[in-house]
Write a structure and sequence with these properties.
eight-stranded parallel beta sheet; 345 residues; 32% helix; binds zinc ion; binds N-carbamoyl-L-aspartate
Length: 345
Amino acid sequence: MQDLVIRRPDDWHLHLRDGDMLRGVIADTSRHFARAIIMPNLVPPVVTSADAAAYRERIVAAIPAGDRFEPLMTLYLTAGTSPDDVEAGHKSGLVKAVKLYPAGATTNSHSGVRNIDEAMPVLERMAKIGLPLCVHGEVTSSDVDIFDREAVFIETVLDPLRKRLPELKLTMEHVTTKDGVDYIKTSKANLAGSITTHHLIINRNAILVGGIKPHYYCLPVAKRENHRLALRAAATSGDARFFLGTDSAPHVDPLKECACGCAGIYTSINTMSCLAHVFEEENALDKLEAFASLNGPAWYGVPANDETITLRKQVDAVSYPAKIDTGAGPVTVFDPMFPLHWAVV
Ligand SMILES: NC(=O)N[C@@H](CC(=O)O)C(=O)O
Ligand SMILES: [Zn+2]
Ligand SMILES: [Zn+2]
């Protein structure tokens, strides 16, 4: 038996959804995590500070009694977003970041940004007040191969934006490529990246070998093995520019297991066990706290959590359900394809 005590982690990229789904999934996050950046891609999206305040109340009402959990709210950037509303939301303490979805890039992104020019007044205001922009970093043009969309985004959108507005704080969400890792490492300030649990574990074979596996499909799609290895090296390095954002993204099974399945992998329930396994494999258990509990707070300018959690390596495999039942329907849990022995006690 081996124990690892770390500060309580936070999740810097989480989809909680709404209604029955929200009520069905929130306990899997609030059990282990103190805070999470809540993604705003609801239908309709969380666009204004008033939307975010109302959504926050629905989330707080769904937190199980006895759990301490703080949702950190974000706004969904659209062509109509008002700089004054963003600033007021930030000043009130409600809005912690704004999310950029290139229109059409991912789940519920059709109201997103078509041309970065249309968002410049908001981005300039954010740079001025120090509010971070979280970016889904993929181009959407049909002539760019889906496996290249992140690398092309860095070159054609992200890098030009950083040159145009160097004072803007940017989180490159769910980095999936060596290109992304290398790009973040060139930055001295104002750029960081979140990394998901599943991209540390699967490469694209998980989706495609031996039959099509919809529960390993997410966006950005998992890439080749060399990219997974680059993500692992970054996450386990202790480098403060990389931190955990699970991107746990529940969809009910019928919407995943069909002719045009949704993108998203549900990992909230077993993320900490998966991460301990990965960090142990990389001989980097001493870096897990930085990745899951320290680097994110430092980036977002909030204190790390005072409480701790204990991870215990046990002989028997940790048991967790293959699916959870939510009021919205069943949601399949991420299967890392190996037994997990690190339990959160
Ligand atoms: N990651 C995903 O595959 N899906 C996310 C959207 C996103 O984060 O891009 C979702 O909302 O389902
Ligand atoms: Zn995304
Ligand atoms: Zn996401």
